[in-house]
């Protein structure tokens, strides 16, 4: 009898091995090894300049890297292969600090655009999906509004709906509340928390430590371009092992 294995059970959704990235002579990622399982919520923390954003940008192909292997859903990221990169971008959603909505389109059109252009989804279907997603982020009634008529928190929730419209396997969030007024942070974090509870695989770069503690399955502390320490949030925040993490946490 041959033993059948289920590849989706054995291969991490995101698999990063020996990743090195340089800007000129400045090595920003110095050999990252990190595996993210399906449905896992991983928060990445660390000082400014430790390479957190660069790591996320490598995962969705926005940045080239010089060494290492990065696979998503078992497919290796090949920056020079446009077909492979198109597939990757469908599997990996990303939300940035700035919302980057198209100002001349309505909220609904912003959410419908990529599925129609990239996935060739018929307009009626794209509309139905956009309506569902906007309802999911609590903005059903804003479908025909322009982005400028929305608060920053609402615009970020539209950006989340737009990323979800491509049905990504994993969603990368890069400091999604950093550009918001403090009173608008909570509504966006709540949407992200809901996604986590619904089983979305998430990688979040965040400075919101309470949030990281609450939603993460695992927290990764980056320091000088390396994964310096990682573990479950209780252990990492309450019993940091390295002086660098102790220092980082005590400076907050
Ligand atoms: N496009 C670029 N060109 C040259 N250097 C860059 C570029 N982007 C980032 N860097 C450098 O790479 C290093 C890591 O930057 P990165 O933005 O990944 O850090 P970070 O941990 O996300 O910081 P922050 O918390 O401030 O966003 C920094 O030294 C930064 O100056």
Automatic annotation (TrEMBL):
It is a peripheral membrane protein. Pfam families: ABC_tran (PF00005). CDD domains: ABC_HisP_GlnQ (cd03262). It is found in: Cell membrane. GO terms for molecular function: ABC-type amino acid transporter activity; ATP binding; ATP hydrolysis activity. PROSITE patterns: ABC_TRANSPORTER_1 (PS00211), ABC_TRANSPORTER_2 (PS50893). The keyword Calcium does not apply. Keywords: Amino-acid transport, ATP-binding, Cell membrane, Membrane, Nucleotide-binding, Transport. Belongs to the ABC transporter superfamily. This is Amino acid ABC transporter ATP-binding protein, PAAT family. It comes from Polaromonas naphthalenivorans (strain CJ2).
């Amino acid at each position: 009898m041959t033993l059948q294995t289920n590849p989706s059970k054995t291969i991490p959704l995101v698999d990063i091995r020996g990743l090195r990235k340089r800007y000129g002579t400045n090595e920003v990622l110095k050999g990252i090894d990190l595996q993210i399982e399906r449905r896992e919520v991983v928060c990445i923390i660390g000082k400014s300049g430790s390479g957190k954003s660069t790591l996320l940008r490598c995962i969705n192909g926005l940045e080239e890297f010089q060494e290492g292997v990065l696979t998503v859903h078992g497919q290796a990221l090949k920056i020079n292969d446009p077909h492979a990169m198109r597939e990757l971008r469908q599997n990996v959603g990303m939300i940035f600090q700035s919302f980057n909505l198209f100002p001349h389109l309505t909220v609904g059109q912003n959410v419908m655009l990529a599925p129609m252009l990239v996935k060739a989804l018929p307009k009626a279907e794209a509309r139905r999906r956009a309506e569902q997603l906007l309802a999911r982020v609590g903005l059903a009634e804003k479908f025909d509004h322009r982005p400028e008529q929305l608060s920053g928190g609402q615009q970020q929730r539209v950006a989340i709906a737009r990323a979800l419209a491509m049905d990504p396997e994993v969603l990368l969030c890069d400091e999604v509340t950093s550009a918001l007024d403090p009173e608008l942070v909570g509504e966006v974090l709540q949407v992200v928390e809901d996604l986590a509870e619904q089983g979305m695989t998430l990688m979040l770069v965040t400075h919101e430590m309470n949030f990281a503690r609450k939603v993460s399955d695992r927290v990764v502390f980056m320091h000088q371009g390396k994964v310096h320490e990682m573990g479950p949030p209780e252990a990492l925040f309450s019993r940091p092992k390295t002086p660098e993490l102790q220092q980082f946490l005590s400076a907050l």
